[in-house]
Write a structure and sequence with these properties.
The chain is an alpha+beta fold. It has helices spanning 58-75, 119-122, 161-175, 236-246, 255-273, 288-291, 296-303, 319-324, 327-339, 344-357, 370-373, 433-443, 452-460; strands at residues 9-17, 26-29, 41-48, 82-85, 91-95, 100-107, 136-143, 148-155, 207-209, 227-234, 278-283, 285-286, 310-311, 314-318, 362-364, 376-379, 399-403, 411-417, 425-432, 448-449. The chain is globular.
Length: 461
């Protein structure tokens, strides 16, 4: 283990924090889009320096966090519940104010010594808690230097990143004695299926009932390389250059499409070396804006909707084409499969598709047999990640990131805004070691392993 990662974390206190207001126990059904999510947990963490001359102790900072959490759970009561199965075997949320597990810990390490580039070693299970009960777990860790890491792990079936971001911002606002700027809505009727439903055949290519899955087959070239997590830093100048290359055929492509196309080419290069002929890439799309189109009241409600409103369109391409074609061609393939999910009808159709298959659970095809048919990975834009808004009263975080080693065969990539310089990105990648080594070699200085020294250097410019 890297010396920077070889530090001890001592848990000093574990308790369950719940809202103080009485809550009548009730059931909150999963929406049809919630039912498409597998039972996986997502982590997120924020690192704070101890400001110079700051006299507040760690215990008083924890008290601020807990007091604000008690208030936040009044509005975000879903995070204080438990997932149970209903009579049909489908998961539902029992809103019983069970509470949120809260861990206080001490880490024998200085903030600049945290090896953020290798979060599996320094973050997972040390600074980001392993959720044992309920749907949300939190941890506050005091560092040797007086800094603090605030982290949480939540059940993805209960919240997507948009919903989790809402909660984090609200929690921080309450900690600063402010009012919540956006009160969450749990109105499941916004996700009701149409009667009769209308399902486009393209959805059968994107989602599949679990009962129809074929047993895994062994691939002669299947690599034994397991997936690992890494965090990188990309300057805006490099992103602009990628976008320029992706737009060189005259079409406008976003930075996300351009960066995703670059990654797809890199994964294809590695896939060719491993003997694969095809590779898949998906991109997560938020449907809130789409479902609110043409209805001002629904659009307002969708902005505050708490739950999952995501789709994962994907493309499959031959590795040789991805390698040989220019970046603009690959970016066009990305744009084409992404475009199919950027409509209101697509998300309404998804809701109807799930209704037609209930209570049979279903899953995105993007996640199926990724390591057998060829490497697969998903890109999820974290540009709404509110790293600069999660200020609990002791200044903004110097760093924050999602952490999602979800345990499947498919990779996961999330680019987020840098806390140091506008336009730069911080990118969390969960890919195979050999894929990451190739990406690092091909990208050169454009994709830098993230360190505190580099963050500090960028911030001082």
């Amino acid at each position: 283990m890297d010396a920077k990662a070889d530090f001890k974390v001592t848990v000093s206190k574990e308790e369950t924090v719940a809202a103080m207001l009485p809550l009548q126990e009730h059931w909150l059904p999963f929406s049809n889009l919630d039912l498409l999510l597998p039972s996986v947990d997502v982590g997120v963490f924020f690192c704070y320096r101890k400001p110079e001359g700051y006299i507040r102790s760690f215990s008083s900072m924890v008290n601020v966090l807990k007091t604000a959490l008690v208030q936040a759970l009044v509005s975000y009561y879903a995070f204080a519940g438990e997932v149970v199965a209903n009579a049909a075997g489908e998961p539902e949320l029992l809103c019983n104010n069970r509470g949120v597990d809260f861990v206080e810990a001490y880490a024998d390490v200085e903030l600049p010594q945290l090896d953020l580039h290798n979060p599996d070693q320094t973050i997972q299970g040390k600074l980001v808690p392993n959720k044992k009960h309920g749907v949300l777990s939190l941890q506050a860790t005091e560092l040797r230097c007086g800094g603090i890491v605030v982290a949480c792990t939540f059940d993805h079936r209960i919240a997507d990143a948009y919903s989790a971001n809402m909660f984090l911002v609200s929690w921080a606002q309450l900690a600063r004695s402010n009012s919540i700027s956006l009160v969450p809505s749990f109105r499941r009727s916004l996700m009701n299926p149409r009667r009769p439903g209308c399902i486009d055949s393209s959805l059968d290519q994107m989602y599949v009932p679990i009962s129809s899955l074929q047993p895994p087959k062994h691939h002669l070239h299947q690599p034994t390389d397991h997936l690992i997590s890494r965090i990188y830093y990309i300057p805006s100048e490099q992103l602009n250059e990628l976008q320029s290359l992706a737009c060189s055929n005259g079409y406008k492509r976003t930075k996300l499409e351009s960066f995703s196309a670059f990654l797809w080419k890199m994964v294809a290069l590695r896939a060719a070396k491993d003997g694969f002929k095809f590779t898949k890439m998906g991109i997560v799309v938020d449907g809130r804006v789409r479902l609110g189109e043409g209805d001002e009241q629904k659009a307002s409600l969708m902005c505050s909707y708490f739950g999952n409103v995501i789709s994962i369109p994907f493309g499959s391409q031959g590795v040789n084409e991805l390698i040989e074609k220019p970046l603009w061609w690959v970016a066009s393939q990305v744009h084409d499969f992404l475009e199919q999910a950027l409509t209101k009808e697509h998300f309404l159709g998804m809701i109807d598709w799930v209704e037609a298959h209930r209570p049979e659970p279903a899953l995105a095809k993007m996640y199926i047999n990724g390591s057998e048919e060829g490497p697969a990975f998903v890109v999820s834009s974290g540009q709404r990640f509110p790293v600069l808004k999660v200020d609990f009263g002791w200044d903004r975080p110097v760093f924050g990131s999602y952490h999602f080693p979800w345990g499947g065969d498919s990779g996961y990539v999330m680019p987020m805004p840098s806390p140091c310089r506008e336009g730069d990105w911080v990118v969390y990648m969960h890919l195979s070691k050999r894929q990451l080594e190739l990406i690092e070699a091909e990208a050169g200085n454009a994709l830098r392993p993230l360190t505190f020294d580099h963050l500090q250097a960028v911030a001082s410019v």
